[in-house]
Amino acid sequence: MGGTGAGGARRGRRYDPERRTRILDAALDVIAEHGTAGTTHRTIAARADVPLGSVTYHFASLADLLAQAFARYVELQSATFEKLFEDVATPEQFVEVVVDLVCGGPARHRSAVLGFELHLAALRDPGLRVLTQAWTWQSRAVLARFTGPDTAARLDALLEGMIMHALLAAEPESREATRAAIVQTLGPAHLEGDRHARARGI
Fold it and tell me: CA-based, 20 to 30 A from 110: which of 36, 89, 189, 196?
């Protein structure tokens, strides 16, 4: 009887359907704070508030855990990126959303850090490049709905560079300077087309 009760208790504690996702989210938190080089099974387990054995049970290796955490990041980030542009109706609104991506607050800072950690890891692990490529294609597809594919590719490259500079700069670039660089990349036709459309009442 006592053994059965103890076994039942252990089974009850083991049943945690959200544990795997919680471990992945904890891994992303640790990567954002310490980088992939400072990420271990122990730091992830502590952040997720789970036993160390639970981490090694769910993931075959630390490399496997990091790859799945980055895959979750790309999935979440792609959905967030798509949602940012849901209510955009004019080129001016589009520009302001893009400027916000560069001049964002703490939440954007965390996502940017994770993005660059993924790209750095992908330089050393070709297997992760599938994720970076998929993320690039998805992001450019969203941008291309407003700009066309060629301009979307240029804008995407500009954004990556500007976001990196924003993370590293001691003095952040002004919002006005950021906006000017984005408008220049888009070209005058982008905003002029909207002005003409509004003038015609479209």
Answer: 89
Domain covering 15-59 in this structure, CATH number = 1.10.10.60
Which ranges of the chain would DSSP assign to H, the alpha helix?
2-14, 19-34, 41-48, 52-58, 62-84, 91-102, 106-124, 129-147, 149-168, 175-186, 188-199
* CB neighbourhood size of 118 (10 A): 24
* Distance between CA atoms of residues 75 and 192, nearest Å: 34
pTM of the full predicted structure? 0.82
Distance CA 70, CA 27 (A): 9
Spatial distance between the Cα atoms of 148 and 3, rounded to a whole number of angstroms: 67
Q: pLDDT, tens digit, for every residue of 30-81?
A: 999 999 999 999 999 999 999 999 999 999 999 999 999 999 999 999 999 9
Query: Over the stretch 104-117, which tens digit does the pLDDT of each residue have?
Result: 877 788 999 999 99
What count of residues does the chain have? Answer: 202
Q: Of 80, 62, 79, 78, whose CA–CA distance to 24 is shortest?
A: 62
What single-letter amino acid sits at 42? R
